Amino acid sequence: MSLAVIDAREWQNRFDLETGQPRKSDAPVAEMAARVLSRHPYPGDVDEQANQWVTDTALDLISHYDPDLVCLSYVQQFFSDRHFNHSETERERLFAAAMAEADRFVELSGFTPVIVGTGNMIPLAGDMDLSGLDGLAVSSNWSARYCGIHHPSPRDMEFLNSLDTLERIVPRQEWIDLFQAAQPDLEILQDPRLMPDFLAVAREGQAFKTMGTTLRKPVHIPANNFQVPVVSPFGPVTDLREIKPLIRAHLSTHKIALILVEGVGESFFPESRYMVQNGVDWFCYEPGDAFYLTLSTGRHQPFAYPAGFRSFDKDADAIKFPFSGYMDAVPGHTLGLNFPGKSIAVGNRSMFMHMAFGVDISIECFARNLFNQGCMAVVHRDDK
């Protein structure tokens, strides 16, 4: 059973990850992870030192655990660019600094890097307020392009079809069929009854204002990044799903770091980069759970936590993993799962580091909507 160690600077406690109940553990790996946490308080999502925290924490963890696989995410520049209005010069500095921090980790650790960008950010052109529908519109604080529409009335559909800021309105089965054609073994693990009847897709630069979004209005949002940049020393890749098998094929001979830099597009990558497919047809992955899980599992994952999913209608008594946000199960098929060597993940993306990669030990910020509540380590394996 997985152990969570939460460090709020003034106190540190241990919990069962699945139930959220207090739990005692004096396993050497748990003790080591707790000490690393205490040495690296999280500075905050938009703090200039947030990405440095990722590097320094990862290097400390490496020095005490000696992993063969490391997964990192550098996200400070994404949070800062999304929520604050910077000059173009400052924006370029933020993105370049993120790449420089990834390079610093590679230089100091000696790991062979596979670096993945999530693509460019663009200014918000406008947002669509769908709160007045007869049915229910559900979007996410971290999604700009997609919104789920539940039980729309004829009046709702007439209104939606009149919006020139919408690119398309896709029935649920058509959305599913699109991905099943691309991947016949597609998994839909959530209750289909809680999925939206229609998926509303915004035009590039537009976003939604609905249930699920917050009052913190974005300044920049992800572009329609149908391709994203990748640096790979192991040869070319053409699709996001090819990165997992590429890394696993070389872990017997290399110590490898999979590094994500969110909000960073191809212009900040070296000329040796590859541009890889990021989605299917009209659907591109935004930075979020579907992107992370598709990268880590090597399978399309738009329905692990689908856009517009009514997670709030789940049976409250059946909800597990209270420290994992809306993620309610440890995913299968992930990069570190069943890997016999040692593995770690460190990043300033809450939830994703301990859920998306299947590694032995993860350390991440414990923050929600930019509010810093400390940091958390999760120990999935203490037997290596």
Model description:
This protein is of the alpha/beta class and 384 residues long. It folds into two domains: 3-122 and 221-379, no CATH class; 123-219, Gyrase A, domain 2 (2-Layer Sandwich). It is 26% helix and 25% strand. The chain has helices at residues 28-39, 50-65, 76-83, 88-109, 154-161, 172-182, 243-250, 289-297, 352-356, and strands at 3-7, 12-16, 69-74, 112-117, 121-123, 126-129, 136-138, 146-150, 166-171, 198-202, 206-209, 220-222, 227-231, 256-261, 274-277, 279-280, 283-284, 343-347, 361-368, 371-379. A ten-stranded mixed sheet has the order 2-1-20-19-18-3-14-4-13-15, with helices on both faces. It starts with a strand and ends in a 5-residue tail after the last strand. The mean pLDDT is 94.
Question: Keywords for this structure?
Answer:
alpha/beta, 4-stranded antiparallel β-sheet, 9 helices, 10-stranded mixed β-sheet, 20 strands, globular, single chain, 2 domains, 384 residues, Gyrase A, domain 2
